[in-house]
């Protein structure tokens, strides 16, 4: 999970959320394996960099400390990768890992880029933190060129183990009822999730936001107990059961 660039529209996160996300103990990255897989999906979509062809402009929205962006840059060599975050503290750390990181917010015109200027957007585990995800997708759609790629990842509410937990009357993994501590579910880490999606809900949300869904794939979750990890990897073959949803969508052409 990368640190959210903005949680509300208009403006930046409310004071409580802003303080929470600025806390250095809150995780700001989801691990290199998932970042690399997402970048590989984008690399295949963009195709090889050819001599005489301009490099694609790729925005990593919510780049946090730049760890995920640095991993993606290795896979997307030859393209122009720009990190974006609202947190000045996160940006200071990101600039030690990637060449370019700028401040921006997911509000109306809050990203410092012209309309139709980006070829692709990486939006890694941000949407589940947003108060107003509709405004965020509107802003991403604005900066993407027609046909531009959106690579979005988010935890899956209907992950295979969450289905069993709900049947047992247990709060699902990834869901949170407090910013202070975990209540009623496995785990101890509070990360500020406000919204959760199933594969069906994510597909409908992206379509309604002006995107054409190319593919939804599954990815494993790094915090699954070790004995269950083979099962978690197997669940990725059925994205609706996977721990993490990886969506590839394209901005619809008018």
From TrEMBL:
<feature type="region of interest" description="Disordered">
    <location>
        <begin position="1"/>
        <end position="33"/>
    </location>
</feature>
<dbReference type="GO" id="GO:0008168">
    <property type="term" value="F:methyltransferase activity"/>
</dbReference>
<dbReference type="GO" id="GO:0032259">
    <property type="term" value="P:methylation"/>
</dbReference>
<feature type="compositionally biased region" description="Low complexity">
    <location>
        <begin position="1"/>
        <end position="16"/>
    </location>
</feature>
<keyword id="KW-0808">Transferase</keyword>
<dbReference type="GO" id="GO:0017000">
    <property type="term" value="P:antibiotic biosynthetic process"/>
</dbReference>
<protein>
    <submittedName>
        <fullName>Class I SAM-dependent methyltransferase</fullName>
    </submittedName>
</protein>
<dbReference type="InterPro" id="IPR029063">
    <property type="entry name" value="SAM-dependent_MTases_sf"/>
</dbReference>
<dbReference type="Pfam" id="PF13489">
    <property type="entry name" value="Methyltransf_23"/>
</dbReference>
<keyword id="KW-0489">Methyltransferase</keyword>
